[in-house]
Amino acid sequence: QLQLQESGPGLVKPSETLSLTCTVSGGSISSSSYYWGWIRQPPGKGLEWIGSIYYSGSTYYNPSLKSRVTISVDTSKNQFSLKLSSVTAADTAVYYCARLSGIAVAGTTGDYWGQGTLVTVSS
Amino acid sequence: EIVLTQSPGTLSLSPGERATLSCRASQSVSSSYLAWYQQKPGQAPRLLIYGASSRATGIPDRFSGSGSGTDFTLTISRLEPEDFAVYYCQQYGSSPRITFGPGTKVDIK
């Protein structure tokens, strides 16, 4: 059974960089059939797609965050990572990693999700 | 950008009743690229429906999806106690590639 697990600091100071890693188990991140993505959810609010990555390293970002986001993949560790720079309180959210299936670039549907990790931006 | 609107915002029903949730898109969405998720408090979203009408693995047949173009519907034929949750629709398209609706909360009447 595929499992995804987010890890990283739960507290980040304003203006600093948020860094999270998603470890995939029970399947290979190098599968040609899937993309891997990050989605976030501010407390009490809806879901926002941050971006997706293919095992080859091709990335697709939400334009609203593109200037601050970097997603990378480490196939040797079966992991992919998120960096979000210059964070503010508005970036406080539960961050989910997910497997994105579908034939279109960036993936179309999140069929497996991590449990999510709350990241709070505060001094 | 394709904007998804979900209605109603909250649906108050009793177990055993039928739930009909609406998702409307600001532009036409390919049926292949419309999905529905269920989210319970403190949990990650769970994929229910993809391709507008295909149930994901392990999803009970009381959940069904329909629609095309700009209007899509998720129907829960008979609500079970575990179905009270928030439901999101999601589309894939042009930039941004993936967007979600604001959600419909189904709560117990």
**Helical segment tally of chain B?**
0
Distance between the termini of chain B: 36 Å
Specify the structural class of chain A. Answer: mainly beta
The description of the largest β-sheet of chain B is:
7 strands, mixed
Q: Provide the low-confidence segments of chain A as ranges.
A: none
Order of helices and strands of chain A: EEEEEEEEEEE
Strand fraction of chain A: over 45%
Number of strands of chain B: 10
- Write down the overall geometry of chain B: globular
Largest sheet of chain A: 7 strands, mixed
Q: Name the poorly predicted regions of chain B.
A: none
Mean pLDDT of chain B, to the nearest integer, reads 96
User: Averaging pLDDT over every residue of chain A, what do you get?
Assistant: 96
Query: Shape of chain A, please?
Result: globular
**Computed Rg of chain B:** 13 Å
Oligomer: heterodimer
Number of strands of chain A: 11
Give me the strand/helix succession of chain B. Answer: EEEEEEEEEE
- Helix share, percent of chain B: under 10%
Q: So how many helices of chain A? A: 0
Biggest chain pair contact, residues each?
A: A-B, 27 and 23 residues
